[in-house]
Fold this protein.
Amino acid sequence: MTVIKGEKAKKYVYGFVDLSLQEQVNGIDLTVGEIYQFCERGTLDFDNSRRKIPRTEPLRPKDEWYSLKPGVYLVRYRESVEIPLDCVALVLPRSSLLRMGATLHTALYDSGYKGRGVGLLVVFNPFGVKLSKNARIGQIIFIKSEKVEKGYEGEYLGEGLKEE
């Protein structure tokens, strides 16, 4: 497994707040774009014929800050990414987020994915957490893989790149 160093990985990430802070040794820091709360239950089956992604509502920052109580939130990253056909990517939580009692759960970014991805932000701290708009919360790492001829073509291709 080969992780692409940050200085090379930056060419796959767009919309930086400040590249001098976001470029890391082994990846790129992703920041808070929007945070959403869940409003209903979701449904998932084998072939997605009955899949229902739950409705969410955006939270509004107050004076550029989100005050989050313990619970589960959907966070859309500010930056967009384009995963090359010879890579996959993972987003890991920043250690500062873990140290304050919160974490990110994320899924694999397939070869060919393009968009502004989402993560599941879980606040465990019983006192909650406070995150600024554009806070660096995760780090995306790009991992070399066998090159595919045809990349990701699923429903989430291009997500978050235009008004949804």
Notes: The chain has one domain: 6-144.
